[in-house]
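Example record for the data management plan.
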Amino acid sequence: MRGYYPVLNALGLVLGLFGLVMVFPLAVSFYLDDGATRAYDEAILITFGAGLALWATTRHARRDLRVPDGFLLVALTWLVTPVFGGLPLIFFLPELSFTDAYFEAASGLTTTGATVIVGLDALPISINLWRTFMHWIGGMGVIVLMVAILPLLGIGGRQLFKAETPGPMKENSLTPRIEETAKGLWTVYVLLTIACGVCLWLAGMEGWEALIHAFSIMGLGGFSSKDASLAYFDSVPIEMVTIGFALIAGVNWATHYLAFLRHSVQAYGKDPEIRWFFVVMLGSAVLLTVYLGEAHAHADLPTTLRYVVFHVVSIATSLGLATYDYTLWPMFAQMWILFLGSFAPCSGSTGGGIKMIRAIILYRQVYREIVRSLHPGAVRPVRIGGSVVPEHILHAVLGFGFMYMVSIVSLTLLLSATGLDIITAFSAVVACINNTGPGLGSVGPAGNYQALTDFQTWVLSFTMILGRLEIFTLLVVMTPTFWRR
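Corresponding structural encoding:
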């Protein structure tokens, strides 16, 4: 057990800092006098106290973390922080069970956006702010933020960054020092979040509503302060701002950082994912607009185009905000946008799914195998952006794709065995593992999962974390081999 003390020591620091993060909604609650101040007082005391106690009891074992330590710390962080993230909700909403509070916080931190709370319109501003603020701090990853701080305390961050950052070729750093990379990414993240909030305010949202939804949009989370989601505002300018910043958040944040660092847009032209990302968005919007127009799903073409473009971007990027009950569309359209969230977001974005880079690699690998079948002697390496993809990356992507499908099938069967109808079970698993939020059936556009049993809720909580950690990070820790090291 002592061999894991350095990991527990780092986890104590993470929890302590997570407790300090709650000071932000506490300050808002105190300023607005919205009645939630005591809930934050108690949550901060427990969270910071637990982190301090864990850190103090293991401080003698501090050392630089090895690669396995990084995986364990990432897994523990995402499994444990929802316990404390749900405390303000439990204290303010005593009718909320621990299961539901954990689900809500896990949904917030994994940027899924599925909720079990109704009556959002009546909640204090600070509570809705905390829900979407969890999206924001979880969007780029709690650990990526920590690597800018932990090295200063004698705990290395490179292993954490490798375990946390999405994408198959994620070991490549942007700057020689990982803390500089983290700081640079967060600088761009903060600036674009401010820009998003200002644009939402100019588009017609009130100040606090704009801030709440800016956190949700830039984290590609999907929580809203309204039960009707973005449909409450019924505003084309607000929807246009949301679409624009959701597309920005769906692009690799490393690309944004490089463009910011070099004061040039050339980085976007060199990113091999971006053109596929926008082609998929545009093609899907055109296809569904024509399809729904032929099906007379809406009164006219402009209305059809408005709802199609918004939901294609929202679901495909895994944002999950809604302006219309798309379960009224024909099943083909519903399934199309649901599957878009499985692969459309770029690697290194705050989106979920397998990521566009993996989809490209899988497509080109399949095409290579077809060519090999016709020409067995042909040498045709898989290339991305002019570079040859190493064989170990190909094998990793194929393995990931297999485990992704196995996870969806297994979890769907598990939920079906509990009596959940197949459409709801399947779409809930897909929506949660892709960190999208809304699914189909009884977990439709509003993304409300309140009707599920406690067991079903725990299964989907696990599914959200599994998807956020891109499956292998969590599965590695669950193997017997890991614990025999």
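Summary line stored alongside the record: The mean pLDDT is 88.
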